[in-house]
Amino acid sequence: xxxxxxxxxxxxxxxxxxxxxxxxxxxxxxxxxxxxxxxxxxxxxxxxxxxxxxxxxxxxxxxxxxxxxxxxxxxxxxxxxxxxxxxxxxxxxxxxxxxxxxxxxxxxxxxxxxxxxxxxxxxxxxxxxxxxxxxxxxxxxxxxxxxxxxxxxxxxxxxxxxxxxxxxxxxxxxxxxxxxxxxxxxxxxxxxxxxxxxxxxxxxxxxxxxxxxxxxxxxxxxxxxxxxxxxxxxxxxxxxxxxxxxxxxxxxxxxxxxxxxxxxxxxxxxxxxxxxxxxxxxxxxxxxxxxxxxxxxxxxxxxxxxxxxxxxxxxxxxxxxxxxxxxxxxxxxxxxxxxxxxxxxxxxxxxxxxxxx
Length: 357
What we know:
Number of domains: 2
CATH class of the largest domain: Alpha Beta
Strand content: 15-25%
Order of helices and strands: EHEHEHEHHEEHEHEHEHEEHEEHEHEH
CATH topology of the largest domain: Rossmann fold
Mean pLDDT: 96
CATH architecture of the largest domain: 3-Layer(aba) Sandwich
Distance between the termini: 48 Å
Number of helices: 13
Radius of gyration: 21 Å
Number of strands: 15
């Protein structure tokens, strides 16, 4: 590692994208992620790239489609309602297998909502908010350092698998400031892209990057190829953190900002003799089933904590598969879970499943 800088989360994302070789950014301002566009407008042209503020989110995602089709590293960013407007374009990118990085700094909803942090876009990101049988890789940082590192990794994953990789943050992560230690050289993976539309001088067959296939048999084959790729990603790219887990009896499941709160709960519980661990998914898709298999033998129960009505909870229930009791605590609309409320649930669960057998 090398240079250390005190940076806002949104700015760390933008700096990471430039360092990762992003040459095109298309976006539209919306709080609480507008600093990404501000930073890109100032820095990207100096790095030899192109910044363009589109006339709308719909225009921005289609510009991503066009630039990404040339094999160039490209990014867009927005917040919840803006990502909703991009959903058709995201499905097109998936169908055409165009690599791109999309950032969603989530705000409270539904509807226009408010600018406070939330995690209520989990379904949209992980279950496919657009149409069709498609997936996108979803990475969930929990610090400004991880915003930097996972943004670089998102570009590598997007190129590696020819698909969209999404950074799913929230208003707290986007606006908070922490020290970021940058690498002297980024681990940029360089891939040959024979599919890209870069011109050929009639020296080879034309490349056509499209998602339209009028023959049902051809469209089914394309879909099956996507599903085969998604299975490979499930096997190779699951990422997670297990924290204080070796002798834990209760496990909190949380990601992003809420995982930071969970770690403080673990310290509070230690002082009361309650052994609590954390399962933190870093890839929300693919969801890290393996993490639960590692801890299920010692876990007495799980507590999922989210800034939503319980969207990740559904994947936790599938991973646990009825083998242990799964509890839930959530706040909505931009409200952040409070330590005292979570700790009360931890005490109650401990009393029910551990202390009293």
